Amino acid sequence: MTTLGTGVLRFRHWLRDHPLALDGALALGVLVSMIIGSFADPSSHSGPTFGTRTPAASSVLLMVLGALALVWRRRHPMAVLVATGGLTVVELVMVDPPAPVVMSVVIALYTIAARTDRPTTWRVGLLTMAALTAAAMFFGSAPWYSQENFGVFAWTGMASAAGDAVRSRRAFVDAIRERAERAERTREEEARRRVAEERLRIARDLHDVVAHHIALVNVQAGVAAHVMDKRPDQAKQALAHVREASRSALNELRATVGLLRQSGDPEAPTEPAPGLAVLDALVETVRRAGLPVEVACATGDGPPLPAAVDLAAYRVIQEALTNVRKHAGPGAKAEVSVVRVGATAEVMVLDNGRGNPDGGGEGGGHGLLGMRERVTALGGTLAAGPRYGGGFRVHAILPVKALPQQSEQPDVVGRTGENA
């Protein structure tokens, strides 16, 4: 049964790829049917009888021409209908009783109805039915109300109706297929959008991790190079800080990149994402790098912050302290505060620096831009700019219940383009 089904399927595909062969076989079948029908005498009182008459040579010629025209019914449907209709009218006028050349018109009319629109089908169908029925009634010897005349009318009408039904069904199936394909494309686009969002989130985390720790490594390496000859003990201490910062950076990178691993890959780290719970460790690292930092954290006794909000607050503080260390200049101090007020958590990082003339104008970092995108993605706001009297201020307001919204771009002045 499987072999038979496969053979039928292959044959259908072959016919679809060779429509001219299918039309040729159809024309041959129609010709055989017309010739067989031409031997029937419909005028018998007891009904049609076979073998009582023989078709004339002209009738055979008209039947052959009508069947031959059907070979091109797909390429030129209207021309084929005109040709077969003309041959049928000639048969109805010249021969009595006529041979069934009208069968070729039925096939041609069905083709037009199945391949055009409904208005064209009914206009052409009504015109064809009227012309052929009038020719049969006016030129035949039978009464105008005979069943042969109404048979011409009925067969041409059924051809139009059948072709229109087939066209409607094909349109319905095509519409269902198009909707299914569109739904599939929508699912694929949604999957790609989610992948892009996840990649953007991971890229932000990577930027925050690398920018913070590399800035600390750079500062401590500079200190070690400066005091290497005169104060080797302090140089060793600075190098130890470099080692610790680099190890911390590697651990966070390993945890972040582990999110990209697929099933079957080596086991990824299971450490949770950083948050305010490890804020003290972050501040201590910055202090060892030479930047005095004061921390005030009042999150209340309520439920813990959502994971996304907790991570965003940590990253904002991390990026802000990195910018202070890079751009605030010597002698700067920083203040960090985290306060939970109602349905929001406010994060503020202040410094009293005057700016670093040696490193403030290089590059066009994306630190503040990354912070703003991270905050606004959760439905919060971020403002950053110089303080009155000197220094810089970063203020983020995060909703306790993260609600994604369209990113806003608040005006940022001062060192927007100077951050890491």
Give a verbal description of the structure.
There is one protein chain. With 420 residues, this protein is of the alpha+beta class. 60% of the residues lie in helices and 10% in strands. It is built from 11 helices and 7 strands. Strands 3-4-5-7-6 form a 5-stranded mixed beta sheet, covered by helices on one side. A two-stranded antiparallel sheet has the order 1-2. A hairpin with a 7-residue loop joins strand 1 and strand 2 (49-50). It is rod-shaped, with a radius of gyration of 43 Å.
Number of strands: 7
Separate helix tally = 11
Going across the biggest sheet, name each strand in turn.
3-4-5-7-6
Summarize the biggest pleated sheet. 5 strands, mixed
Termini gap: 70 Å
Structural class: alpha+beta
Q: Which stretches are poorly predicted, pLDDT < 50 over at least 5 residues?
A: 262-266, 357-364, 403-420
Tell me roughly what share of residues is in helical segments.
Answer: 55-70%
Short description:
This protein is an alpha+beta fold.
Q: What is the fold's blueprint, element by element?
A:
Blueprint: H1 2-17, H2 19-38, E1 40-41, E2 49-50, H3 57-69, H4 77-94, H5 102-115, H6 118-139, H7 147-227, H8 232-257, H9 279-288, E3 293-298, H10 307-327, E4 334-341, E5 344-351, H11 367-377, E6 381-386, E7 392-399
Parallel strand pairs: 3-4
Antiparallel strand pairs: 1-2, 4-5, 5-7, 6-7
Helix pairs in contact: 2-3, 3-4, 4-5, 4-6, 5-6, 5-7, 6-7, 7-8, 7-10, 10-11
Entry keywords:
single chain; 420 residues; alpha+beta; 5-stranded mixed beta sheet; two-stranded antiparallel sheet; disordered C terminus
